[in-house]
Design goal:
There is one protein chain. By secondary structure, the protein is α+β, with helices and mostly antiparallel strands. It has helices at residues 24-41, 62-79, 129-138, 143-153, 158-166, 179-191, 208-213, 219-228, 240-246, 261-273; strands at 2-3, 9-17, 45-55, 82-90, 95-104, 120-123, 171-174, 193-198, 232-235, 255-259, 279-286, 291-294. Helices cover 39% and strands 26% of the residues. The strands form two sheets. Strands 7-10-6-11-8-12-9 form a seven-stranded mixed beta sheet. It has a five-stranded mixed beta sheet with strand order 1-2-5-3-4, covered by helices on one side. The two termini are 34 Å apart.
Length: 298
């Protein structure tokens, strides 16, 4: 955060991804939504972005690149920021993303360390996009999962950020490469609290558990789970397959934030009215930075 004055501060973030889907414009939309997510996770609004592109000109047409950039422009128009140019380099593997500058009120910034004892935990998107991406590489994705995953990854976290601020949340993060369990551990450690997650309450993309049961789990998700175990307690009937989904590495995932229970439930109701698959998935208590996963519904 770079504070400009008492009322305004800038937040800056950057993210770049390789293709997750076959359609170039959809990939552009996903990459832009993923890149801007950190701004929303801090309670800010994006102002402008610079495109970052790696492109193999010998193998891929410039018309295809135009479609990718059009996808990024789609998301900028939807989110109200300006794509102010960018930079392209020769790269054997195509990559696209954005460096984003946003604005935030310094006294309302959402932080990893902001969770409080007594907060309820809200997750604003379903898990499973890492499993989806792995299945895409294998060429076998159920239609229902494909539709749901693309819809989720191209949905901006602007509504989720507004809901968190309206609920007077102080702690939030976006769920990306470290998965729910990895980000939960980091938030618990930063805030010096313990988190309790009700596994049955966590929204999951349709078909993701079935694929995980078949072993369709990205290596990054397995590493996330291995890292989370040092601070993880599991109670009740929670199996390894479900844990692997909870640790699934996400692209353009939702926000995880804490708010007082009544406000958290109001935020979820508001988000569901707006078409989000959001849920209260657990709670926060005083502690030492541990995460407990139990099987009961929250």
């Amino acid at each position: 955060m770079w504070r400009l004055d008492e009322d305004r501060a800038l937040v800056v973030t950057v993210d770049v991804i390789t293709p997750l889907v076959d359609d170039a414009r959809t990939w552009g939309r996903i990459a832009a939504a993923n890149a801007v997510s950190d701004v929303y996770a801090m309670g800010g609004r994006p102002l402008l972005a610079l495109n970052i592109v790696g492109w193999n000109r010998d193998e891929l047409s410039l018309d295809l690149l135009s479609e990718v950039l059009a996808g990024g422009a789609d998301m900028a128009a939807r989110g109200g920021w300006v794509n102010a140019g960018g930079h392209t380099i020769d790269d054997p593997e195509p990559k696209y993303g954005q460096a984003v500058i946003g604005e935030v009120a310094p006294d309302r910034i959402l932080r990893n360390s902001g969770l409080r004892h007594g907060d309820a935990l809200v997750l604003t998107k379903p898990l499973g996009t890492g499993i989806f991406a792995t299945a895409m590489k294998a060429g076998s994705v159920p239609d229902e999962l494909h539709t749901a995953a693309v819809e989720s990854m191209t949905r901006l976290n602007d509504d989720a950020s507004s809901a968190a601020l309206a609920a007077e949340a102080t702690g939030a993060t976006d769920i990306t490469g470290f998965g729910l369990l990895g980000h939960a551990r980091r938030m618990a450690e930063e805030a010096r609290v313990d988190l309790e997650i009700a596994a049955a309450s966590v929204p999951i993309l349709p078909g993701a558990i079935a694929l995980a049961t078949e072993g369709v789990v990205p290596g990054g998700s397995r590493r996330n789970l291995d890292w989370a175990r040092a601070r993880l307690d599991v109670t009740g009937d929670v199996d390894e397959v479900l844990l692997s989904v909870l640790g699934d590495a996400q692209t353009s995932g939702g926000l995880l934030f804490g708010a007082r229970p009544a406000a958290a439930h109001e935020a979820v109701a508001r988000l569901r009215e707006q078409g989000h698959d959001a849920a209260v998935i657990g709670s926060v208590r005083d502690g030492s930075g541990r995460v407990e996963v139990r099987d009961q519904r929250d």
